[in-house]
Design brief:
This protein is an alpha/beta fold. It is 70% helix and 12% strand. The protein has a 6-stranded antiparallel beta sheet, with helices on one face. A 6-stranded mixed beta sheet has the order 8-12-13-3-14-15, with helices on both faces. A 3-stranded antiparallel beta sheet has the order 9-10-11.
Length: 848
């Protein structure tokens, strides 16, 4: 994997940065502390590839403080193709993360993402064949974590080495073999259990055949018993049906008796009604003279009421007229009240006419003064903008000059350090290593003179010109005479005068409005006077009409009392007819009742005879369920026998299938057992003590050789490294797989932990460089990128130079080597330098 570009938005302290590493091979990363060097070159790529990778820090804490969204876009080349990952995090609401993984196909990006983030991360890990821990341990030396590999336990070291060598594929192969072996083992055990179960069932076959023959004989005998009992039940059922017919006939006769009784009841009721009707008719006929007299009085009173009722609409009309007059009066009064209020307000407003006119003149003068003030403000702003442009040019030129001075001074200090060695040197043979080193110091001395000349000849003329231009513009701005406070005060005064000036412009219109409102008020008062006179006239008419209608309630009460006599007059003729009809109908009803009494006697005699004949029905009904229950018991026993026979036949059929199945299982068991044995062999071969152990044994010497080459340079041949992959067990015979680190010097070998901090750091670097190269050489997942973060601080000047030489020595084994350091002497060693420069909106990244 070879990184190409990084684009960072609001990640940790970086607001925005675009880093192009396309042409970078080996470079120092420079910038002040806190500029975001470590975040940009170590944390950002890991976040883009693997997500939540910083222990103890949540993804929300990675979002730059004061913002809510962050994003990292990482583009890299891998196995001849170009890929990029785009990972975002938003802390809005409940928070949201996204991950997009793409491959460049010709000139377009094609998505390789899965539906879920964790599945997309699995796609990335599968492509790289790395997880975050292995990627970091082998290709990044983090700040303060150079011992990330050496400080881990022996078992963990071996796990990382296994991933670097791609041995995790054997874990997957072993898991696959175990799964298939487990499936076969389960099938074999199931087959054995099935065979035992079938054999147990086949032992019962002969006894079931004998039981089936016995049950068939019992079933034939049961059919004969059922036939006899069925005939007996049928005869009893016919007898019951005959007796039930007679009972039903007796019941029908009872219903006839009830029906006749019901027919007699209406006649009795009708007769009682006719007798009452006859009494009422005779009572009306006895008061005929009194009824006629009161009826004549009823019609006389009714005529008087009709005459008076004819005058009621006139009364209602006058009442309605009074209501309309009151409504009109109320409406006019309601209109007069707000009208009076508006007239008083206008009169009061017009009294301040002279004040409004004076304020209007003041407003006009202030407006003219404001226009002049705004012209001065435009001149001031234009000059201010020019000054800002010139100041920006001055700052840019100042930064360029300072950067150039800083670079030259850094190179001069490094060259001074090299040339200082010439004063104590007594070198005669330049072919020796030390003299070769002093030869480099001679070159540094020649370069030092040229660099000092470059430092003294830096052109500062542009800075002088820009400074003079700024001073000139400042004087020009002061000559304008613009006063911001007076400008703001004038605007406030104009806003205060604006409503008073508007009132002055409306004075004449309001005088005309006052005249119009006063005319309206006079008209409304005249309308009120006319309505008052009309109300007096209507009240006089209404009082006269009320006196004429005063007797009407008494006449209505008298009419109600006479209404009953008038109704009786209409019933006199009907009473004569009712009396005649009632006498005839009562005679007919008496004849009908006599006929129905004779019919009741005849029906009761017939019903009594049927009841005597049906007395033996209860005995037959009691015997019927007994016989039916006995027949059902016989049939139940027959059904049980049938079920038992059917069950035995099914069991015998199943046993026949079991015999066929047993033979099939026995035939399949032997090849499955042989296949299971082969999978057991594969499980052992794919295990840690099998093929992976052999690969590690072959890879460790290569790792040891590379690490010793690098460590020899950094320690001047003093130290060497040896790895032990097996350790004897203390509790029993045998060996244990491990990856112990043994360090040797000119005297003896001892554990890594017994060396000083500076020596440990050089050992850490040697092993980490060797791991990185081993990973770069591994087929299928080449990581051709090495990052070292602030790893030189604990070294003295001499060993720092050796470490830097070792870094440059391994650089040709990678496509990119990036060294993050704040030590200027170390920065100057590298021909390429990447500068981090902070601004408010972004981090400017310059590759030089």
């Amino acid at each position: 994997m070879n990184p190409l570009t990084l684009e960072i938005v609001n990640f940790r302290a970086i607001p925005f940065a675009h880093i192009d590493l396309t042409d970078v091979t080996i470079a120092a990363i420079c910038g002040r502390n806190g500029a975001g060097k470590s975040s940009g070159f170590t944390m950002a790529p890991r976040f883009a590839l693997f997500g939540d990778v910083i222990e103890g820090v949540s993804m929300d804490d990675l979002v730059r403080r004061g913002t809510q969204d962050m994003a990292v876009t990482f583009t890299f080349e891998h196995q001849g193709s170009t890929y990029r990952t785009i990972r975002t995090r938003s802390i809005k609401g409940n928070g949201k993360s996204t991950l997009e993984f793409q491959q460049q196909i010709n000139d377009r990006w094609e998505s390789k993402s899965a539906e879920k983030i964790k599945d997309t991360e699995a796609v990335i890990r599968s492509l790289l064949n790395l997880d975050d821990e292995t990627f970091t341990a082998s290709s990044m030396i983090m700040q303060g974590k150079a011992n990330e590999f050496t400080a881990k336990s022996a078992g963990k070291r071996k796990e990382i080495l296994q991933q670097i060598l791609g041995l995790n594929v054997y874990d997957r192969l072993q898991d696959a073999a175990r799964q298939k072996a487990a499936v076969l083992h389960l099938e074999i055990e199931k087959a054995k259990d099935k065979l035992a179960e079938i054999d147990e069932r086949l032992k019962l076959k002969q006894s079931k055949e004998e039981l089936l023959e016995s049950l068939n004989q019992d079933a034939d005998a049961m059919k004969s018993f059922i036939h006899v009992k069925d005939n007996e039940l049928r005869q009893l059922e016919e007898k019951i049906h005959m007796l039930q017919a007679k009972v039903e006939k007796a019941f029908e006769l009872s219903k006839q008796l009830n029906l006749i009784s019901k027919e007699i009841a209406p006649f009795d009721i009708e007769k009682e009604g006719l007798v009452a009707k006859l009494g009422r008719a005779e009572k009306i006929l006895s008061k005929e003279t009194e009824i006629l007299k009161n009826t004549d009085e009823y019609y006389r009173v009714k005529d008087q009421i009709t005459v008076l009722e004819a005058r009621r609409p006139e009364q209602e009309r006058l009442i309605a007229e009074l209501e309309r007059i009151e409504v009109s009066t109320s409406k006019i009064n309601n209109d007069i009240i707000p009208l009076d209020h508006r007239i008083r307000n206008l009169q009061q407003l017009l009294q301040s006419r002279e004040l409004f006119m004076a304020k209007a003149e003041e407003y006009t003068a202030a407006t003219l003064q404001l226009k002049h003030m705004e012209d001065l403000a435009e001149q001031w702003d234009a000059t201010e903008k020019e000054m800002l442009d010139v100041r920006a040019q001055f700052n840019s030129e100042q930064a360029r000059v300072n950067t150039l001075k800083s670079l030259l001074e850094s190179e001069i200090r490094m060259l001074d350090a090299k040339t200082s060695m010439l004063e104590d040197s007594n070198c005669f043979d330049v072919t020796k290593a030390a003299c070769l080193f002093l030869s480099d110091a001679q070159k540094a001395k020649q370069t030092l003179t040229r660099k000092n000349e470059e430092l003294n000849s830096i052109d500062l003329s542009k800075l002088t010109t820009l400074n003079k231009s700024m001073n000139s513009m400042s004087e020009k701005q002061q000559e304008i005479g613009y006063d911001f406070a007076a400008h703001r005060s004038l605007k406030v005064r104009i806003e205060e005068l604006r409503p008073l000036a508007e009132e002055a412009s409306q004075i004449q219109a309001k005088e005309e409005l006052l005249d119009s409102l006063q005319d309206q008020n006079k008209g409304l008062i005249n309308q009120l006077d006319e309505l008052a006179q009309k109300q007096l006239n209507v009240n006089s008419e209404l009082n006269s009409l009320r006196e004429a209608l005063a007797p009407l309630p008494a006449l209505r009460s008298s009419l109600d009392n006479l209404q009953a006599w008038a109704n009786l007059k209409e019933q006199i003729g009907a009473a004569f007819e009712a009396k005649k009809n009632a006498v005839a109908r009562i005679a007919a009803i008496d004849l009908e009742l006599q006929t129905r009494a004779l019919r009741i006697i005849a029906i009761e005699e017939e019903r009594a005879l049927l009841v005597v004949e049906a007395q033996c029905l209860d005995a037959a009904l009691t015997e019927f369920p007994i016989i039916k229950r006995e027949l059902q018991q016989l049939r139940d026993r027959e059904h049980i026998l049938t079920e038992q026979i059917g069950g035995l036949k099914n069991e015998l059929a199943a046993l026949a299938k079991d015999e066929l199945l047993r033979q099939q299982l026995a035939d399949e068991l032997e090849p499955k057992s042989r296949k299971w044995s082969r999978y057991q062999t594969l499980i052992r071969a794919f295990g840690r003590d099998g093929i992976p152990a052999l690969i590690i044994e072959n890879a460790v010497p290569q790792l040891e050789r590379i690490a010793n080459e690098i460590l020899s340079k950094m320690s001047k041949g003093k130290h060497f490294i040896r790895f032990e992959t097996q350790r004897e067990l203390k509790s029993r015979d045998g060996v244990q797989e491990t990856l112990d680190i043994i360090i040797g010097d000119w005297t003896s070998e001892r554990p890594y932990e017994t060396f000083s901090g500076g020596e440990q750091l050089r050992i850490d670097y040697a092993i980490r460089f060797a791991l990185a190269e081993l990973l770069a050489q591994r087929a299928g997942s080449k990581v051709e990128w090495l990052t070292i973060d602030e790893g030189l601080g604990s070294q003295d000047a001499e060993h720092r130079g050796l470490v830097l030489e070792s870094i440059k020595a391994v650089a040709d084994r990678f496509k990119k080597v990036l060294v993050i350091t704040h030590i200027e002497e170390a920065q100057a060693v590298f021909e390429q330098q990447i500068y981090f420069e902070n601004t408010e909106a972004a981090v400017r990244v310059n590759v030089a």
